[in-house]
Amino acid sequence: MAKPKKVVLAYSGGLDTSIILRWLQVEKGCEVVTFTADIGQGEELEPARKKAELMGIKQIYIDDLKEEFVRDFVFPMFRANALYEGVYLLGTSIARPLIAKRLIEIAIETGADAIAHGATGKGNDQVRFELTAYALKPDIKVIAPWREWTLNSRASLIDYAEKHQIPIPKDKRGEAPYSTDANLLHISYEGKVLEDPWSEPHDDMFKLTVSPEKAPDKAEYVEIEFAKGDAVAVNGVKLSPAKLLAKLNELGGKHGVGRLDLVENRYVGMKSRGVYETPGGTLLHVAHRAVESITLDREAMHLKDELMPRYAKMIYTGYWFAPEREMLQAAIDQTQTWVNGTVRLKLFKGSATVAGRKSPNSLYRMDYVTFEEDSVYNQFDAEGFIKLNALRLRLGKMAHDKK
Fold this sequence. Notes:
The protein is of the alpha/beta class. Helices cover 40% and strands 19% of the residues. It has a five-stranded parallel beta sheet with strand order 3-2-1-4-5, sandwiched between helices. A five-stranded antiparallel beta sheet has the order 10-9-8-13-14. A four-stranded antiparallel beta sheet has the order 6-7-12-11, with no helix packed on it.
C-alpha cells in the first residue's frame, strides 16, 4: 500500500493531537490539514488555529457544527428514545459520525488521501471514526497513531513534545485526574481516579450540573414544545436546535439533573467506568417520552420500544451510516408524524418529572377513560374480548388435563 501523502487530522489543539500532528509530519512525511469541530464543547477554538499555524499548517479548518450536530444527529437519535444499556444517552457516540463525516468531506475538498484521529486502540471511538470513514469513502486511508507509535506513557509524550518544539502547557506536565470529552449534549469523564468503580466521583469534577444537594430548594417548571418528534420551543420561546439544547442544559444543570455513573460494555470487549453529565438531554428524553405517551398508537409505541436497544447499540458501536440504522430511522421517523404537543416538567434536586402533557393530536380521550358515566364505551363488550383471548389458554389446559 502506498504511503499517504496528505492527511486530514481531527485536531483539538491539545497536547496529544499536537504531538500527532508533528508525528505525521516527521514520521510519516505527510502534508497535514487540520480540522477542528465546534460541537459545543465550550472551549475557545482560535488557539487551535494559532497552534496549527505555528506548526507550519497551511490548510486549517475550524467549523461551527453545533446546529448540524443537534438537528441531524442528536434530534434523530432522541426521536428513538435511544439509551445504551438502558441508561446512557450516547453523548460521545453521536458526535463521532459527524466529525468523521466532515473529515471525509475535507479530504475530498483538499485532495487528501488519508485521515487521522487521536482515538486509542482500547476504546470505541476508533471504531466509530473508521466505520464512518469507510462507509463514506471506501478507498480512504486511516492513520491511528495510538495503534502504531511507541509513545505509550505520559513521560514519553512529554519527551517527544520537547524534542520537537511543541509547547506544553503547565497543567499538562502532571498526570490528569481523568480524561474528558465535551459537546453540546454532554460531558464525559473517564480514567485515572474513576477507574475504580467503587470510588465515588468528586463533586468538584462536574461542570454542567450542580450537585442535587446544592440545587435550589424550590422546584422549577419548564415547558417543552414538540413538532413531529423534535423539540422546537422552551417555555413558549421558539429556538433553533442548538440554542434549544443549550437552554435545556442551563435549566437542567441548575437543578442537578442529568448525572450518570455507569459501568458499560465497550465494543472492543472490555468493561469501562464512565461518568456523564447530560442535563438538557435528560430533560429532552423525559419530555419526548411523555408527548409520545399521548400521541403514539399502543402497538407502534411498543414495537418502537423493542427496536430501541438495537438502534442504541448501532450508535454506540459506530454504525450511524450503516443501512440497518438508516432503515430503522425511517421507521422511527414515520411514527413521529403526529408527535406534536407540549410537556411540562418539574425540576427539583436532581430529578425531572412529568407534571403535564397536552397535544392537538392526543389519543387520550376523557370520554372513554372516565370512571364516571359515559355513552361511548359498552363495558359488556369486554366479556367477549376476554373470552376470545382466553380461548387458546382454555383449549391448552383442557388438552393437557386429558393426559
